[in-house]
């Protein structure tokens, strides 16, 4: 079946705007002049009039956690909580609404301590006010830390004799030994692995919901950004049952589940919607929580955050990924973590390589580091929405260094391809938010950050489409509207290159493999 799209602005990302796009089945067969599109169309071709809307390539999601987002759909929503009392009341309401039996875990997600009246994380005493008969865990919106109540500490086996794990920290009471309920980085992620998972059918139901939300935001290729056996099992079962609507690319937790990469590649169905993309490494934490690894101390203190991996560990992990043929995505927020990755890639990969190592987040990367990244073929994927959502916190934590967070402008001037992402579930999968933040560079309170790091909407749209496809080694398949490529497209309510407010530009319809949803 042929479908002809015309009657609006069409951005192909492969040159000048087109007058028309012609699709046949799952593929684009022509993009260009309307006359030629009509000449190539079959006699019974369906014509879709854009009515002034904008047609553009769909978004390959440069970085997020699809199944983790699915899991948050069943948790107590803590986003926007103004104080600890509101965290407590929302958790209690969640227990009552869902009639959670005593002894079962109660989970909440999305509080941001920097936005709360007390400016601090919950503790065991705070969460004991939620329940003393349910184990309770709440996750800070970054996903890097959280807190548990007293019963949860007992079930997790955490006490005064438990040492901090490497790359993490257990919060302590005034005696310096007794856990106070706060868990940070690896201490928190290890605790999360001990919580009983929900059953498979519930996981699949939640995944169905999550996919609908991604698709509604124009994302047709999603990422599973830290894959372990549990996440892989959910995705492979969804694929087996035909419940994956979108493409999903998985990156294995290389410092714990590296063996999953080879077995997953063997098990993946040729031409299926699920594939193994490579390896994921965590090098540090988050700057808004002062756990990102920095070269200089945070404002008002002597702390610089800390690395998640020693240099030797990182080299060994990179070498094993290279030997396995796995592309590496490395979480680096601080400039010291960025330096560690750049150094290690320079040791393991020759200059001019096409390994397409990706520096995820790259919040405080410097201009000099970006220049060396270009030499080594490292792609920065900026979490640009930090500018709006966490920029005021960064100004408090980083001082003048916060002016340059997410330095897209420098990358653009260096002709260094970069991508943008939302790190969902940290923020919802609304990539128009990322585009707006990268172009405006204004914090939530209205403070403008370094305007030289702004990009244009056209540059941002390329980062979300063709550059994102390039990051996945799929620039020959996705990311632009060209003959032979997949017919994954968006109908936008306004032209993003001329809209006065990018956040007001909505994804109205999505075309997935040639089918309009």
Describe the structure.
- By secondary structure, the chain is of the alpha/beta class.
- The chain has three domains: 1-58 and 479-517, Urease, subunit C, domain 1 (Roll), CATH 2.30.40; 75-192, Diaminopimelate Epimerase, Chain A, domain 1 (Roll); 200-478, Metal-dependent hydrolases (TIM Barrel, Alpha-Beta Barrel), CATH 3.20.20.140.
- The chain is built from 18 helices and 22 strands.
- The chain has helices at residues 34-40, 66-72, 84-98, 124-128, 150-156, 186-192, 200-216, 229-240, 259-267, 311-324, 335-348, 367-376, 386-389, 391-398, 408-413, 431-440, 457-464, 466-471, and strands at residues 2-10, 18-24, 27-32, 46-49, 54-57, 59-60, 76-77, 106-111, 136-140, 145-148, 168-172, 179-185, 219-227, 247-253, 274-282, 327-332, 358-361, 379-382, 419-420, 489-492, 507-512, 515-516.
- Strands 1, 2, 3, 4, 5, 20, 21 and 22 form an eight-stranded mixed β-sheet that branches.
- The chain is globular and about 80 Å long.
- The two termini are 16 Å apart.
